[in-house]
Amino acid sequence: MEMKRRHKGFLKPADDDDYLTSAEAQPIDRKIGEERAGFGEERIITYNFNHSSTIEQQRQRLPIFKYRTHILYLLEKYSVLIIIGETGSGKSTQIPQFLLESGWAGDNKCICVTQPRKMAAVSLAMRVADEKGVTLGEEVGYSVRFEECCSEKLTKIKFVTDGLIIREMMSDPLLKQYSIIMIDEAHERSLNTDIVIGLLKKIQRKRPELKLIVSSATIDAELMMNFFNTNETDDPTKNTVAALTVEGRMYPVDIFYQLDPVPNYLDAMVETVIKIHTHEKPGDVLAFVTGQEEVEKVVKELKSRSSTMTDDDKPFLKIIPLYAGLPFKDQMKAFERPTTVPEMQRSNMAGVILQLKALGIDNVLKFNFLSSPSVDAMLCGLELLYALEALDDNCHLTDPIGQQMAEFPLNPCFSKMLIMSGRFGCSKEAVAICSMTQIQNVFIMPHNKKMKMEKMKRKFSVAQGDHLTLLNVFRAFINSNKNPRWCKENYLNYKGLMRAVELEQRLINYLRRFKIPLESCEDDPERIIRCLAAGLFCNTAKYHPSGVYRTIRDDHCLSIHPTSVLYTELPADYVVFNEVVHSGGDKEFMRDVTVVKLEFLTDVAKHYFDYGSDGPAAKRSKYDF
């Protein structure tokens, strides 16, 4: 269906003045009398009992310190060491230093520590460099997606994301640069962590001298021991795996006092809980009030506030009341331990399969996963890669498309989109759009300013959808000379946009390497949308008279996300989207949505669709594995 466009072509923003903004939470400022970043204008003071201790004294106070000798002994005796230590015990910062001090980085080798998140890898590297009194990037460094701060010759301790070490295996299959690898935060069971664990088990068969440490706050030690143990006899002295539990924790407790009284402490409490949830690391918050009535009031207000949150990158806020008058069953909800479902068992497997294929693992169905994904999930991943022309009829990587897709540090759909962008003459626009989709929040919504933010957002909106709107924002940011004040005025994430600019340059380097021409379509939206369809055709949804969209691939019911520029528009017949996100309830939403014509889909993916009386439906391909 034809849709009314808000703008002719793309927005050509004027040179506006800009403001400084910070989209990411800042570290807590522990200086007396200063404000806490991200927590409004309240003035606070803090006390930290560690402030007068030397770094060495602080290290020795950590619970992990008394296990130093035992850890080093177990590493000499066993191939794999599983360490279970509560948060705050010092595992992540101290164990790498124990290893360095005892000579594990000799013979031009390096100690590697993997983290599931980029921010953790960077901040831990900074902390360890600070403790050792060295310059970050020399003896201690980090390497994460699109960013590196280390030296091939000087670095002895390197913190990396688990996704990055998988990419390192493509050029160094046996990871010969490392003498020991520590897999930290293994209890999170992220997709990449589970893949790394499976790959390292294979590498140890070729490199038995490589030592592994699996570190976690809470993990099924028996599962890990059974997975890594190569002892096939009943003699426990021949085990190749050991487990160590580190007792005790050490939290430096900071006490924050408000210097000014608040008119309503319940409102202040709700506001504080929401800001902790949105600005701090994932975790739990205990809020104490005087009785049942206040508990119920705070719970009601928190539920109301959390229902309007649009930041889907934050975990769902689970609000649990606790007071003596509650039934025992309801009281016990506050003490339930969350169970971690391995991401491997709830994720799209196409990216995993692509990486494994690039590493030379032909039969991915027989790969030794710590927790095996379902056969259906693997087959769906294979079907997607086949549809994207990354795999041939024998399930081998195609040349060049499949091999190039495996090298891009992106979702396979975006990789295919960039590879195809040269054919549509819009590679510059495609790179900008891909870069913008990699940042978490483009727009910032300050408290009580939702209407103003929406008004500013409409200034950039294009009726064809979110991808062209993101391109508008990117261009406007560049035209503003990347001015932070302008971002503040327009409720835009300055740090995120700067990150997108960096990503754009890195992705352009990939295009140059693959000899994909860098061209602009000169504001021809049709060519950009055709290019989007070439990568996202598997994520096509058709509007249904019931008021929802249904995916072509599996007839799944979806709605347009409230943050989309299409949310308030008349529904289009067909759309493509980046991803599906879940709300706190049963509803599922499409994020980053663009209107697409049926003819675009048939032009770029004839091989994917069958046609019937109801229009196109995805073919179910058959494979001979």
From TrEMBL:
Q: Name one GO molecular function term.
A: ATP binding
Question: Where would I find the Helicase ATP-binding domain in this sequence?
Answer: 72-237
Any one annotated GO CC term? catalytic step 2 spliceosome
PROSITE patterns xref list: DEAH_ATP_HELICASE (PS00690), HELICASE_ATP_BIND_1 (PS51192)
UniProt keyword annotations, A-Z: ATP-binding, Hydrolase, Nucleotide-binding
Instruction: List the Pfam families.
Output: HA2_C (PF21010), OB_NTP_bind (PF07717), WHD_HA2 (PF04408)
Q: Does the keyword Nucleotide-binding apply?
A: yes
Q: This protein's superkingdom? A: Eukaryota
Q: What is its EC number?
A: 3.6.4.13
> Could you tell me which InterPro entries the record lists for this protein?
DEAD-box_helicase_OB_fold, DNA/RNA_helicase_DEAH_CS, HA2_WH, Helicase-assoc_dom, Helicase_ATP-bd, P-loop_NTPase
- Gene3D superfamilies recorded: 1.20.120.1080, P-loop containing nucleotide triphosphate hydrolases
Q: Does the keyword Transmembrane helix apply?
A: no
PANTHER family for the chain: ATP-DEPENDENT RNA HELICASE, ATP-DEPENDENT RNA HELICASE DHX35-RELATED
Under which name does UniProt file this protein? RNA helicase
Q: To which species is this protein native?
A: Helobdella robusta
Q: Which gene encodes it?
A: 20211901
